[in-house]
Write a structure and sequence with these properties.
alpha+beta, five-stranded antiparallel sheet, binds zinc ion, globular, 20% helix, single chain
């Protein structure tokens, strides 16, 4: 495992769309391990591959109950809305309020390529949506309704 350098706001990489992961090999596992370690070291609750300069559709989150690894995630359901303050490891010290679904359902592959289903609310729902946005080149500032 290794700590990778986090791409910071202003870097055009963050606006790029990530490509699907096709190979579930040691290179992917290394990336997922490094994402988790880098996220924890930075005290974050989510980190997408694009944030370490790798344009692949993968991210990790940890909202307090362990690391989840999502590869090729797709949102398959949204219910309700929540308005909460949000930050991003690529924009240290910057916070704003965004509107996210109250409940979000996703499907994603795990590190071995198996499809898994997730249903989340609260912080975890926000983290899922925030990281999925990164894979499409969207950053949380694009969704701010109020800057803090
Ligand atoms: Zn972010």
């Amino acid at each position: 495992m290794a700590i990778r350098k986090i791409v910071k706001g202003g870097d055009a990489t963050l606006q790029k769309k990530s490509r699907a992961v096709e190979k579930f090999d040691e290179r992917l596992w290394q990336l997922l391990d490094d994402l988790a370690q880098t996220m924890h070291e930075a005290n974050g609750c989510g980190l997408a591959a694009v944030q370490v300069g790798v344009l692949r559709r993968a991210f990790v989150i940890d909202t307090g109950d362990g690391v989840l690894e999502l590869v090729n995630p797709e949102v398959i359901g949204r219910e309700g809305i929540q308005r909460e303050q949000e930050g991003c490891l690529s924009f240290p010290g910057e916070y704003g309020v965004t509107i996210r679904p109250a409940i979000v359902k996703l499907k994603a592959q795990n590190r071995n390529g198996k499809w898994c289903f997730y249903k989340a609310d609260g912080l975890k729902a926000r983290a899922f949506c925030h990281e999925c946005d990164h894979l499409d080149g969207v950053v949380f500032k694009d969704r701010w309704i109020k800057e803090m």
